[in-house]
Amino acid sequence: MKIRVLLVDDQSIIREGLGSLLRSKPDIEIVGEAENGQVAVELAIALKPDIVLMDVRMPVMDGVAAIRSLHQKVPDIKVLVLTTFDDDEYITKAMGFGAKGYLLKDTPSEELAEAIRAIHKGYTQMGPGLFDKVMLAHGTVEPEPSPEFDLLTPREKEVLELIAQGLNNREIAKALYISERTVKNHVNSILSRLNLRDRTQAAIFASRLKG
Description:
With 211 residues, the protein is an alpha/beta fold. Helix content is 52%, strand content 14%.
């Protein structure tokens, strides 16, 4: 079963390039293209893709407004932002309105494909440095003491720290010399023990602990 993707970008050359790159992946299918957020919402409702790959700045309706509309109308469709803009306000609003990931357009094609696969499985993805940028911009948040943190094993605490640094499962596996399957098990255990929804919440939790 292929992952069905809708491409949204106001520049046709970008859509063509992304389409060419992603069509080379055997497990990804491009089901449509849109040049602005309004068309993206209409096509998403009609085509019901698994993932919408969404730019931010576009005419008629920008990506953030489109994400909000999609989350309200078709909440099962996951949105991955792919843009040149790393403004913390864009990131915060996009994630707050329901986006599952935020990447920059200089992301290598294989990493983009991996991010699409991860979001399709229910994970969240943020480009290198973007999470820290948002946390610095909202640095007034006080760390919250959490007795649940003490329930984590030493290895789970290591995995949580690496999640907070923005590493994906493959990178964590390499850093700790364990398998990706083991990392996935640790991540699931961390989310369960701490009663967190996803990796983004786990990263925020870890950053708050560090103060």
